[in-house]
Specification:
Order of helices and strands: HEHEEEE
Structural class: alpha+beta
GO molecular function: hydrolase activity
InterPro entries: C-N_Hydrolase, C-N_Hydrolase_sf, Omega-amidase_YafV
Distance between the termini: 28 Å
Number of strands: 5
Protein name: Nitrilase-related carbon-nitrogen hydrolase
Organism: Blastococcus brunescens
Helix content: 10-25%
Keywords: Hydrolase
Radius of gyration: 13 Å
Length: 93
C-alpha cells in the first residue's frame, strides 16, 4: 500500500485491486487512508482485507476491511464490526 508505483504500473489494465494485509491497530488510519488514495489515484476499485485479532507477539489487528470505489467512497460495512469482508456487489449501476 505504501508504494504507489506498484499500483501505477498495473493501472492501465486494472479495474479492481485486491489487497490482503496485516496492518496493526496503531496504524489503522494509515491503512484506511492509503486504500482510499490508491482507489482515487488509479481510478479503480480497491478491495482491502486486513487481519483481525491478536498476533502471537501481542500485536492487535483491527480489521477495517473495506471496498473503496474509484471515487473514494467506502462501500457499506457494518459499523463497529471487526469482522472481515461483508458481501457486496460490484455491478455497475
Amino acid at each position: 500500500m505504501r508504494f504507489a508505483d506498484v499500483f501505477w504500473r498495473a493501472a492501465p489494465g486494472t479495474d479492481v485491486y485486491l489487497v490482503p494485509a496485516n496492518w496493526p491497530s496503531p496504524r489503522r488510519l494509515h491503512w484506511q487512508t492509503l486504500l482510499q488514495a490508491r482507489a482515487i489515484e488509479n481510478q479503480a476499485y480497491v478491495v482491502g482485507c486486513n487481519r483481525v485479532g491478536t498476533a502471537g507477539d501481542g500485536t492487535e489487528h483491527a480489521g477495517d476491511s473495506r471496498i473503496i470505489s474509484p471515487m473514494g467512497s467506502c462501500w457499506p460495512r457494518r459499523p463497529g464490526s471487526r469482522r472481515s469482508c461483508w458481501p457486496t456487489s460490484t455491478r455497475p449501476r
